[in-house]
Amino acid sequence: MSFSTVVSAATEGLAVEFVHVEADVSNGLPVFHMVGYLASEVKEAGERVRTAIKNSGFDFPAKRTVINLSPATMRKRGASFDLPIAVAVLTALGELSGSRIQNTLIIGEMGLDGSVRKVPGILPIVAEAKEREVRRCIVPEENKAEAALVSEMQVIGVKDLKETIEFLKSGSKPQKVQQTGSVQERETEESFPDFGDLCGQKNVRRAAEIAVAGGHNLLLIGPPGSGKTMTAGCIAGILPPMSTEESMEVTKIYSVMGMVNEKQPLIRKRPFRNVHHTATRAALIGGGMIPRPGEISLAHQGVLFLDELPEFKKGVLEVLRQPLEQHCIRITRNYGTYTFPADFMLVAAMNPCPCGCYPNLERCTCTPAQIQAYLGKISQPFLDRIDLCVEAGRVDYENLTEQKKGEASAEIRMRVCRVRNLQKERYEGKKIRRNTQLEGELLKKYCALGTKEEAMMRQAFERFSLTARSYHRILRVARTIADLDGREKISEEHLSEALGYRMVDKKYWGR
């Protein structure tokens, strides 16, 4: 047999594209020619594959070898095509029967000695292979546990080219891979600050609980040392566990980025991404010449924390407006559009002025112009997308020396999980999971107001010049507060508290 085809795959953003590796070996000038719209690292595979085949003990006669990676319209990047190219060449040389590679996806990078090395993006590739009814996948040994997260798929982990060919020849059933994504899997312990150690700040603690319970965006304003950053760390400790579906969504993103743990690949804890204020727009939303997910996608189903919010460039903050509404980011290039998920909870912290002491005029050393310029870095459209804005006051000496601890994170997390489960049952069969996702008819249905509540909201809307977006966000927050209170209907008390979290930004921005 002088011609063979091996199925492989590559990731384009988070999407998976199947690639057919075709090999033709015939008499002629001894060349190794590769075509198919290849990046430089793929073109270099020719030298790696030829050397690896020889060093693995196989004969490579001096013949004309042509490799085509189709479809030709798709740019091929990375070193993950090394192993399928080698298998295709050896099949074309008659080392393997073509029937042995049918309905099999092969992927992996190779060293010059024939060893197979791990590659990123294995989980989404194997998941897509299952959707296309591929029967088995041959992957690097180091990627085996990650690939095994996809149920009902035969996963074969190989260490080198020789082992790959021996398996394809014998067809012997490999040792069963333990499903590392099982419920009994031991989670890696992580240490987060505890709300019990947060001195004072009862209002901040309450706002954080509401925010996590409904998945709302939270802004903390206060002087330096008031516990804003610690509060964000405490929030990471009260996040509810992810469902299996959510875990797979997050793990696929981290797989493409090459950030999964080899031994425990399934990510079970919600991400908490703390982004430094020097981050660029591309680092935050993703992009580059080869579009890759950014921090907002790495925070999918978790928390994106922006400390020292006004220190971020205004243009960087403004690009968050669309993802905060649509829960995804679309990056357009000349050769296509890439969509990355970005369903995250935004937590931000900031000082009220450059010195951090405003509105305490006795301590504040900033001029009115400096304060206005500092606060002016946060636009009204961005503030409209914040559900709760809470002030963290200066911590008193009595609070610091108080022996009695506050409520622990474990107790708060129990209430959060109860409310999240309530929302899950309420929205079962719908395309939403949390109160913050309520829109349209669902918002009217589950945030219906009585006569008194309607009058209260009308008065607040006119008095505080609320926008339609901020009005709806107040209703969603009130829905979460009612859930925490165990109430079916939203009352004036719930609306009053929700409105209170909108008044802090009015105090500082006055608009």
TrEMBL record:
<dbReference type="InterPro" id="IPR045006">
    <property type="entry name" value="CHLI-like"/>
</dbReference>
<dbReference type="InterPro" id="IPR014721">
    <property type="entry name" value="Ribsml_uS5_D2-typ_fold_subgr"/>
</dbReference>
<protein>
    <submittedName>
        <fullName>Mg chelatase-like protein</fullName>
    </submittedName>
</protein>
<dbReference type="InterPro" id="IPR000523">
    <property type="entry name" value="Mg_chelatse_chII-like_cat_dom"/>
</dbReference>
<feature type="region of interest" description="Disordered">
    <location>
        <begin position="172"/>
        <end position="194"/>
    </location>
</feature>
<feature type="domain" description="AAA+ ATPase">
    <location>
        <begin position="214"/>
        <end position="396"/>
    </location>
</feature>
<dbReference type="Pfam" id="PF13335">
    <property type="entry name" value="Mg_chelatase_C"/>
</dbReference>
<feature type="compositionally biased region" description="Polar residues">
    <location>
        <begin position="172"/>
        <end position="183"/>
    </location>
</feature>
<dbReference type="InterPro" id="IPR025158">
    <property type="entry name" value="Mg_chelat-rel_C"/>
</dbReference>
<comment type="similarity">
    <text>Belongs to the Mg-chelatase subunits D/I family. ComM subfamily.</text>
</comment>
<dbReference type="InterPro" id="IPR003593">
    <property type="entry name" value="AAA+_ATPase"/>
</dbReference>
<dbReference type="InterPro" id="IPR020568">
    <property type="entry name" value="Ribosomal_Su5_D2-typ_SF"/>
</dbReference>
<dbReference type="Pfam" id="PF01078">
    <property type="entry name" value="Mg_chelatase"/>
</dbReference>
<dbReference type="GO" id="GO:0005524">
    <property type="term" value="F:ATP binding"/>
</dbReference>
<dbReference type="InterPro" id="IPR004482">
    <property type="entry name" value="Mg_chelat-rel"/>
</dbReference>
<dbReference type="Pfam" id="PF13541">
    <property type="entry name" value="ChlI"/>
</dbReference>
<dbReference type="InterPro" id="IPR027417">
    <property type="entry name" value="P-loop_NTPase"/>
</dbReference>
